[in-house]
Structures are given as structure tokens and as C-alpha cells.
Amino acid sequence: MADTVADMLIERLIHWGVDTVFALPGDGINGLFEALRTRQDRIRLVQVRHEEAAAFAACGYAKFTRRLGVCMATSGPGGLHLLNGLYDAKFDGQHVLAITGHTFHDLIGTHYQQDVDLDKVFMDVAAYSERVMGPAHVCNVVDQAVKTSLARRAVSHITIPKDIQDWTQDGHRSTTNIPQHSGDLFAEAFPLPPPAQIRQAADIIDTGERVAILAGRGCLDARNEVLELAEKVGGVIIKPLLGKAVVPDDNPYTTGGIGLLGTAPSQETLEECDTLIIAGSSFPYIEFYPKPGQARTVQIDIDPVRIGLRHPVEVGLTGRCSDVLRALLPLIHQKTDRRFLKTAQERMRSWNDLMEERGTRPDMPLKPQVVAHELNHLLDDDAIICCDTGSVTTWAARHIHMRGTMQFSVSGTLASMANGLPYSIGAAIAFPGRQVICFAGDGGFSMLMGEMATLVKYELPVKVIVLKNNVLGMIKWEQMAFEGNPQFGVQLQPIDFTAYARACGAAGYTVDEPQKVEAVLREALAHPGPAIVEAVVDPNEPPLPGKITTEQAWQFAKSLVRGQRDRWDILKTVVENKIREVI
Ligand SMILES: Cc1ncc(C[n+]2csc(CCOP(=O)(O)OP(=O)(O)O)c2C)c(N)n1
Ligand SMILES: [Mg+2]
Hints:
The chain starts with a helix and ends with a helix. It folds into three domains: 5-166, Thiamin diphosphate (ThDP)-binding fold, Pyr/PP domains (Rossmann fold, 3-Layer(aba) Sandwich), CATH 3.40.50; 196-345, 3-Layer(aba) Sandwich (Rossmann fold), CATH 3.40.50.1220; 363-582, Thiamin diphosphate (ThDP)-binding fold, Pyr/PP domains (Rossmann fold, 3-Layer(aba) Sandwich), CATH 3.40.50. 40% of the residues lie in helices and 14% in strands. It is of the alpha/beta class. It is globular and about 75 Å long. Strands 2-1-3-4-6-5 form a six-stranded parallel sheet, sandwiched between helices. It is built from 21 helices and 17 strands. Helix 1 (5-15) crosses helix 2, helix 3 packs across helix 14 and helix 17 packs across helix 20 (550-561). The chain has helices at 5-15, 30-37, 51-65, 77-91, 118-121, 135-152, 195-207, 223-233, 264-272, 321-328, 339-359, 368-378, 391-399, 420-430, 442-447, 452-457, 473-481, 497-504, 514-526, 550-561, 567-582, and strands at 20-23, 44-47, 69-73, 96-102, 128-131, 155-161, 211-215, 236-238, 275-279, 296-301, 315-318, 384-387, 407-409, 436-441, 463-468, 507-511, 531-536. It binds thiamine diphosphate and magnesium ion.
């Protein structure tokens, strides 16, 4: 039988090295599914329960493997469901290809069923979005979509009307569309700034006395170069969350994270530096950068558009962080003054003591930090941590420490809930044998919890740690500490996640006592299949910033006065936290 458009598309993807597609079927993509069915030995379908999870899984897969992530959804609602996961990929600069179906080519625009022009809908999220018009078109479009995604670290989208997927005849090839003219070669760009610019950057760094290095996700493959830079300049490495795995957390040159969920020493380092090197980061929270004028700044980024995005920059170096740093390092003089670094290290010692104290609290109700802290000790040196969005992110950011070849990700710039579980599907599919952890709140987890069945179906031994506080905790604290309002609309109807895990065919564990956390986690981690650990934690534990501002304290007090219903419990928890910090 002659190849169909769908066959040609899947063949071309295989040609490009794609071996996994995250998808959920529908009548708009039955042609494509048939092409997948007949090529199961070369390309794997991972069937999810919700298309949003397919897109998140593709994004997680791309983040952890650096390969193209591919997801597929049917026409209309299926494609629309992909959107949030695709925006996550767009925002965090991940190469993801989405393939969708459309209604019959000759009924488009007639209010026919599922007649959504997804190529138009996806125009904002995708750097490339095209509708395949026939057999002679498909190869050209696939090649451009793949190349655009890889080159721009972006989302691409291809939609194909359902009947066209089955077409085999090529009666309408235009004469100029010479068969096989489109090439499947991706020639990656390796830009390097001109030597004079690198020299200029080196001079700025040389004159600095207090150097801070903000090392983001663009440095994930530049650990040695970043460490060498820090060593040479006696600098302090600060890691925005997407760059958490750039250097291990116990490295003496780093003060860990930054932002509301970061450490106080990182914030103080940025407040006091006279020179800032932003490397591969678009860390969004502008208020945490040095005040404009305070520090001379050099920025390295693969995307020139990002230079000077958040902070005024004196010299911008466009290129990969590893390449640019390798060119820059020989020009930088070794500094002998270690005072700035030493101060940061001393602060880090007390910060770590504080975290140790917070993470080992014997109090009831169980503190969420205790769960993250205990988990940290039990993780493999190559574990992959997929963190969801909420106050859980704070606990993971502060208590889960990177070491060895561990990888860590969150929905960074989109900061979407529900990414954690699908990311872990992408990670576990890509790395069988590696420990994969999903660390989520009860709100984020319940959004896409149907994907537990996906873990079971594909025997993915992901361990899902759900911090159950029966509240959209992060928002509760925002309402109080940023707005000065009593909490509203944040309470969650409790779910028995352990019973749910078992209902899906996974193992379920529950823990609500600090003394039992280690044993329960140990047992769960040793379980050969997927499992949920439901940790019932204190809903009144605030994810306070490393350094609380007077404005936040004031708003917080105001919300309590205005009728916050757990005010006494909250006050008690906050006051206890503060007292512990002082003692
Ligand atoms: C898709 C989506 N909806 C809403 C939000 C706003 N939001 C951020 S964190 C959060 C609460 C998360 O609650 P939960 O998962 O229970 O974690 P917790 O904060 O309680 O630890 C909400 C609603 C978001 N970031 N993403
Ligand atoms: Mg919660």
C-alpha cells in the first residue's frame, strides 16, 4: 500500500530521531495513530489521560534529555488542551513539536464539528505553525517545524486535516516543489562574541571586588566553567530555580537559590555585589537584582534579545554559556581577595543551620519542610526531581540539594501548576532505571492526577510525593502577606490520595508524623513500581521569603486583624519560626 500523509509524517519524524510521542487519540488523528501503530518497533506512543499532560510530558522530556519533545492531540478540544503545556515549553525555551488534527479539509470554516483552526490558535505559542495541505507538503513542513524548534528552542506546530492524513495520491504537486528537495539536517549555531567584546567583559570582571554570578538554565552544561569562574574571581554563584542543577548545593561557591523561595545569603549577595555576571538566566523577579547603577553587569545569553532584559548590562556576550565562558576565562585574572566569598560562606553556614533546624522539627502537625528534608537524604545522586508549583516549590528549592548528576525542573517562567506529574512521565520514559520523583502539592497534583494511571500503564516507577495541606497554600499566603487580606477560595476538599493510588494500581503510603517520615519514604522509594506518598502537612506553615520585608510583615499582620480564620494557629507558627531564628 502506498504511503499516506500520516505515514510520511511519522517516517520523517523517525528520520529526525524522534522515538517517543506523548498523545491521546481522537477521530481527528486516527490516520496518524495508524501510522504510529504500524511503526511501533521504531517509535513509541505514550498514551496519556489529558492532552495538557502530553504537552507537559514533552516539555519535561525535552528539558531532561535536550532532545525534541513531541506531543500529539486530536482536532478541536484535544489541541486546545495542549496549550498550557506548550506555553510552559515556550516560556522555558524548550524545543517541543505539537501535532494536531483538523476537521475535513473541505469543511474547514463551516462550523463543522471540532472545526478549530489550531494553526491560528497556536500562532502565539508556536514559533512555527502550519497546516499540511497534501502529500507533497508534509515532508517540507516537518523539516521546517523540527528545525525551527531546535534552532529557536521553541514550540512548533503542525496540523493536518483528518482526511488529508489518509491521502496517498499526489496529483497536486506544484512543479517547483521538487521531490526530496527539503533536507533533514540541523546545523546548530555556535555563536561567539568578537574578541574585543570578550576583552571588555573580562576588564569589567577584573575591576570588580564583589562578584556575583547568576547562573541559570543556560549553564546546565557549563558546571566546570561556572565553577572555574567563581574560583578565579572569588565570586558567589546564585542559582535561579531552573539553574538549580548547575552546581551542587554543597559547593562552597554557591549560596543556592534566589527569589521568594531562595536563600537570604543569595539575596544579600545581590544587594552587596559591585559586579554581576548573568549567565544563561532570564530570572524574572526584577526586584531581586541589584539596583540599577549598583553593579557593573556582564550578561551571557544564547539569545541576544534577552541581553539587558531584566537589568542594565554594560557588556552583552551572545553565545552558549559554556563556549563564551571558555573564551572568557583565560582573560580573567585570578583574584586573591576572598572576603566577599567568605562573608557569603559564613551566612550560608547559618542559613544551612536554620534549614537543618526547620527540616528536622519534631512538631505536630508535620511540617512540610521535614518531608523535603528527609527526602533529600534518600535521593540517588542521579535522581530527577520534577517539582510542581506552590509552596511545595519553596520546600523543594530549599531542602532538596543537588549533587552528582541530579536534575531538577519546575514550570519556571510560566509557573503553572500540574506540571510535576507529567514532567515525571517524560523523565521516566527517557531514563529507565533512574530515580524519578514528582514533588507536588495537593492542588497541583489533583489537576492532572489521572496521569497516575499512565505511570501504572507504562510501569514507570515514579515516586509521587504529595504534600497534603488541603489548601492552595501558596495563594493563601499571598492573599495574606502581599495583599493583607484574609484567605478566600483556597480551601481544598480533602482527597484520600493513598486510596487513589491503590485504585490506580500503584502503591500508596501515608505519613503524618515527623518521626515516621524517613521510614515511610524509604519504603516507598524501595517499592519497585509507581507510588504515592501522601504527607499530611501543616496548612499553617508559611513559605516565608528568605528575608521578609517590613511591607510583607505589615500586610500579613493586617490580614490577621481582618478576620483570617486560623489566625491564632498561624500567628503561633510564624512567631515560633521567628523565635527559632533568633535563638
Ligand atoms: C494552572 C495554575 N492555576 C493557578 C495557579 C496559581 N497558583 C499558584 S500556586 C497555587 C497553589 C498550589 O497549591 P498546592 O498545589 O496545593 O500547593 P501548596 O501551595 O498548598 O503547597 C495556585 C492556585 C497557577 N500557578 N497555575
Ligand atoms: Mg496544598
